[in-house]
Every structure is written in structure tokens, then in C-alpha cells.
Amino acid sequence: MNKDNVISKYSKQKISQMEQFCNDYKAFLSSCKTERECINFITKMAVDNGYISLDDALKQNKKLKSGDKVYAVNMGKAMILMVIGEHEMVHGLNFVGSHIDSPRLDLKANPVYENNGLCLLDTHYYGGIKKYQWTTLPLAIHGTVVKKDGKKIDFVYGEDEKDGVVGISDLLPHLEKTKKVEIQGEDLNILVGSTPDMTQKEDKVKANILKIFKSFDIEEDDLFSAEIEVVPSGKARDFGLDKSMIMGYGQDDRVCAYASLRAMMELKNPKHTSVCLFVDKEEIGSVGATGMSSKFFENSIAEVMNLCGQYNELDMRRSLNKSRMLSSDVTAAYDPNYPTPMNEATEAHLGRGISFNKYTGSKGKSGANDANPEFIAKLRQVLDKHDVNYQATEMGKVDAGGGGTIAYIMAGYGMEVIDAGVPVLSMHAPWEITSKVDIYESYLCYKAFYEM
Ligand code: MN
Ligand code: MN
């Protein structure tokens, strides 16, 4: 296990491979700021790498065999990738699963209003945020609107140089002298306009903003059948004078999603059928039709087993029971600015490689998946064989820390699961910080795991 930054062990060649990988990652992170954008990106990469759609395979009643690659998308917001292994699926599968939803501000279903000559959009935040962090930032709007006739309109405003940005104002310090104003969820209103439409009698500024919506073929009522996410505007960047880190929005958990995606794309003829999951709704409890608790994933595996000629109910249960999984989610990195809730000795540190959390619960491991030592021992063997640098960690002090992942849900099938992911500074903030070596080590770890 590492006590130093693992870059000290890297050859020049390995450093340049890491930099190339991180450049690709930054491009992904900059262009994929919603679940739907991530799924579109992943689908394209999968198709380019020879994956076929499960829906198409089902329509054609195509027989699947060892080496075949399939994907299935769930409602545009979650997906599963599979490479069929040499062994029958009843002997167990190798899973890596991450989530692609991140904390943000969602527009309400009836969001547009005018107040004192300004037009604002009302929001309901998604996931755990510190509300003050979202004020006075340049924000962008990424949305999907579905018209009554089923026509889908995807739009992004606030990322292109030619666009403006939107945002949330904050009170000047002079007016907070006696009492500090605490920002409430209901205060997170996005300022989007101030120009009046003088042809209208009232709500002139709102009328002008609705005209702009209309130029995208969006009526006010269409915002009811829409998913519109307000996120930090701008690209992921190198961070630090030495450029050893990356700052970007949504690294929890798109950093693990990207590392596992790349590992999966390079996988050829695995012994065990390999599965890569990208799930939605982790930040709000893994609920809903697109969250990890959804039957979509189990159903997709059943369909694939069936097309392989290997399906029956009992073998399906045996297969999941004998499976292994890396729940690939980020963890908090030790922050010298905020030592109080962290234990320096057991916290993940930036630059020391992929972080394994045997358990994530707090105050007596409450709610945790507690990984088995038999499984961890096998992993140690594989990681050492493949020269993967890792650290064994916890998130926060015993009575202060903790955090949920998808691990416990998959553990419910009886499979072996452990949390393994990239340490993050400023986790859940609009701009999160990761270390390039940790990102690269995570990719190397997921690759090694698939060969287990
Ligand atoms: Mn996460
Ligand atoms: Mn999170």
C-alpha cells in the first residue's frame, strides 16, 4: 500500500500514457454534464467498439456466444455493457458499476416567473449540495423537453463561447452586517433575463424569455414534460501549478464511470462474462426506474443469458450469487484545510492510487456493505500481479463519516462487492478536484479486475 504519490514510480512512458488518458477524460467530463449526455457518449463509444444493441439482438433472436459484446440503455439515463465470457454465466460474472448522476439544480415543472423586472427560473436541487456554493457562479442549462406529440428537443445553453451564462445572485456583505443570510433551497433561483417585451401589458420580462424559449419550439407548458438541469458552466481543467490534478464538474462519479468504460472497451475474450453498469439516481438513494434498485439490470442479464442459451431462473440466481463486483464510486480525499472530521491515517489521500473502502457506513458501520476478507485477499493478489497502486481507506472519522454507494444493493444478490474508486477533494461542490495518477490507477485496476 502506498504512502507516497505513486507518480514517483512512473516511467516517462507511463506518465505520457496517463496524460493522454486524462486529456480524453477531461473532454468527456466537459461535454457530458447530464445522465443523458453520458449515455449518448457511452453508447457511441460502445457501438464504435463493436457492441450490438440488446434490443436489436432480441428482435433478430440472435444467438450470442463467447466474445460477443452487447449493450442496453434504460430510458436514456442508465445502461449496461456486457462481454460474453468463455465460462457459462452460471459460474458468475465480473461487475464494475458506477453512477453518472451528479448533484445539480433541476428546474421545477413550472419554473418561469418575473419579480421586479427580472425573470427567474425556480429550481429544486438534486443530491447533497452546500447551497451557498451555487451562487455567483456561471451556470449552464442542459435540458430535454418532450412535446405532447413525442418530439424531443435537447438543448444546451451556457457552454459555447457565443452563449451567455445564467446564475444565482448573492447578497453583498454590506447588507449582512447584523445577520448573516443563510441560503435556503427555495432561494436557488436562476436569473435569466431583464429585457421587457413592450408589446405585453404585464410580466413583460417573462414574456420576452418565453419568446426565446419559443425560438427553440418550447412553450411554457412544455416545461412540465422536461428534464432541465442547471450545472456549472465551463470545461474541466488541469489543476495546480504542476498540473497534477483535474478540476471539473460531476467527477462524483463520472470519473469512475469513464475509467471503467475505458477498461471495458479494451476487454477481449474474458474468461468470465464481464459487465459494466452506469446507473442513475445514486445521489438520491438509487431509487426509481433508472437507479441501481431497478430491475432493468437483472432483466438485461436474464435476456443475455437467454440469447446465450443459458437461461433458467435457478441458474440466473446462481450466476448473480457467484458474481464479483467493484462498486466504482469516489471517496473523500484527506483535506489539510479541514482535518477535524477526517482521520489522517485512514482517509484516502490524493495521488496514492485507487481507494478501497471495505465499508462506507458511519457510527458503527451503519448501512454499510462490509466486504469479505476472502474476496479482498483475492483482489490483493490480482492488483499486485498487475502492478496496480491502491490504498485501503475509510470516509471520515468513525462517528463523523460515512456515505452510501450502490454496493449494498448488489451485495443483496449474495455476490462479493467492495467499493473502489477515485479520491476527490471538494466532493459534491460545483468544481471537484481529483489526481491524475488516481484516475489512471483506477482504470488499470478495473482492467485487472475484469481479468480475474
Ligand atoms: Mn458517488
Ligand atoms: Mn455523491
Short description:
With 452 residues, the protein is of the alpha/beta class.
Give an account of the 3D structure.
Helices cover 27% and strands 23% of the residues. With 452 residues, the chain is of the alpha/beta class. It has 2 domains: 6-102 and 249-450, Zn peptidases (Aminopeptidase, 3-Layer(aba) Sandwich); 104-232, Aminopeptidase i, Domain 2 (Roll). A 9-stranded mixed sheet has the order 1-2-3-13-4-14-18-16-17, with helices on both faces. Strands 8-7-10-5-6-9 form a 6-stranded antiparallel sheet, covered by helices on one side. It is globular, with a radius of gyration of 23 Å. Bound molecules: manganese (II) ion (2 copies).
The class by helix and strand makeup works out as alpha/beta
> How would the global form be characterised?
globular
What is the alpha-carbon Rg in Å? 23 Å
Kindly state the number of beta strands: 20
Here the CATH topology of the largest domain equals: Aminopeptidase
CATH architectural arrangement of the largest domain: 3-Layer(aba) Sandwich
CATH class of the largest domain: Alpha Beta
Subunit arrangement of the protein: single chain
The largest sheet is: 9 strands, mixed
What is the CATH superfamily label of the largest domain?
Zn peptidases
- How many structural domains can be distinguished in the coordinates? 2
